[in-house]
Amino acid sequence: MTRTVADAAMMLQAIAGYDVEKTTSQQMAVSRYSSALRAKTSSLRSVTDAEAYAYHSESLAKTPELYQPFTRQRLRAAGEVTTVAYIQARRELVQLRHDIRKVFASVDGLVTPTAPIPPRTISEARADDPAKIPRAARSP
Question: Is 137 or 91 the better-scoring residue by pLDDT?
Fold first, then answer.
């Protein structure tokens, strides 16, 4: 249905809210989903990177050739996360989890993508030979 997170936020914004045709629909304020896309996520990156490095550090030191160059580069950079940065990021992560719990306290359903691959553009679909289209993306 959408190709990006921003597209998904716009789609959700369009379908969220009161629907006069649905007897179970309720009139209530709807969040601006696109505003969540501008939220700070650097703390998540610091925490996950530092924890990935902690997990892989021994293997990375002993057998770096077993890692793809990009992965090796990312892990080594993650080893540079300072203790102070990690602790601050963990605190921000705790606050973010608290905020998310508050948001989901009033959520009855969650719409997520169901296809294992992103949709093709119209031009890609027209240019592709149907035999080349991944089975998951074909119409039944």
Answer: 91
pLDDT greater than 80 at residue 46: no
**Domain range enclosing 101:** 40-105
Q: What percent of the chain has pLDDT over 90?
A: 9
- Residue 105 burial class via C-beta count within 10 angstroms: exposed 0-12, middle 13-18, buried 19 and up: exposed
Query: How many Cα atoms occupy the beta-carbon half-sphere of 92 within 13 Å?
Result: 16
Whole-number Å distance between alpha carbons of 18 and 15: 9
Q: 14: closest CA among 43, 28, 35, 34?
A: 34
Within a domain: 75 = yes
Please report how many Cα atoms fall inside a 13 Å half-sphere around the Cα of residue 126, on the Cβ side: 3
Q: Report pLDDT for 105.
A: 83
- Given the structure tokens 């948001």, which residue do they identify? 103
